[in-house]
Amino acid sequence: MAGLRIAAVLLTIIGMLSIPAFAEQKRGIAAFSLDDGYPNWMTAAHILKKHGGVATGYVNNFRIDRGDISAEMLSALQDVYGWEIGTHTYGHANPEAFVLLYGGERWIQDELLSSIRGLAALGLKAHSLVFPYNKSTAELRRTVLLHVSSFRSGGERPIGTGIRPDGSFPGKAIDVAGYVPISQVFSWIDRAHREGSVLFLYGHQVLPDAAFHTGSVQSVTSGELTAGEPVKPFHDPYSCLVPDMERPLQYGIAIQKVEGNRILISNANLLRFTAPGARFMIGPCLGLRESDLEAIVAYAASRLEFRRISDLPKEQ
């Protein structure tokens, strides 16, 4: 009996010791966000919720006005799924061009404050901003902090320690236009876990895998990729090509047209991006496959905590 009691005590102690170890397995933060405002954000919400995750949705008010996304859906994302709803400005005008034409003060009034007020009237609390096209001026970056607590600077490495002293945070798009292989995203997750850092990723639409086409490269010239099989018709006028799914892209490669198994492009030299035998993908330029998001979120959930942008720590 004494031996059984000792074994029971040992098991209890081991169990108690294992609780903190298990709790400490997660280290680092995943800060995922989506831009513009699409009804398929709800798909992302379901995937994130399944893995205990949240995100930040940066919405343009004009997309609410014309019915691209409903106020009810945004409220559900905020109040039911725990998302943060931030502002992507009212009309998605290029801030640099807008300021040149009308001045910075009018941009603050027409694009930023009108957006924040409109969202507030719907019960949406916007504390963070994404500049359209990640474009801004030094004056705007200073002035917006009178009205929001942070803004994305964009176009940078995706890992940081939090919101910077100037209110900015980095971000890396993982849409088709800014394609990143899943293996590289996993390596970023591992790095954020090792360092206890924040991984900043963003996208736009989350679409069914059927909205994309993958295949093998048979041959390639500077402006044409020939697939090993016919390419299914695509209907999105803003479709982009990933010439090699093992290589990241810095910018979108727009498709001019598809003829049978020939894919024609004009804004890149494909010989720099792919070779026969590689796997390619076609899809909406601002689209991310559901299966890819599922894989990313599931892996991130095993190693990182998910946070909304306004809940991130301040950089020391």
Global shape: globular
Count, helices? 9
According to CATH, the homologous superfamily of the largest domain is Glycoside hydrolase/deacetylase
Helix content: 25-40%
* Low-confidence spans: 1-23
Describe this structure as you would to a colleague.
This protein folds into two domains: 26-204 and 289-311, TIM Barrel (Alpha-Beta Barrel); 209-285, Thrombin, subunit H. Helix 2 runs parallel beside helix 9 (290-301). The protein has nine helices and 18 strands. The protein starts with a helix and ends in a 10-residue tail after the last strand. It has helices at 2-23, 41-50, 61-65, 71-79, 95-102, 104-121, 138-143, 182-195, 290-301; strands spanning 29-36, 56-59, 84-87, 128-130, 150-152, 159-160, 168-169, 172-173, 198-203, 205-207, 213-220, 224-227, 239-242, 255-259, 262-265, 279-284, 287-289, 305-306. The chain has 316 residues and is an alpha/beta fold. Helices cover 33% and strands 23% of the residues. Strands 1, 2, 3, 6, 8, 9 and 18 form a seven-stranded mixed sheet that branches. Residues 1-23 have low confidence and may be disordered.
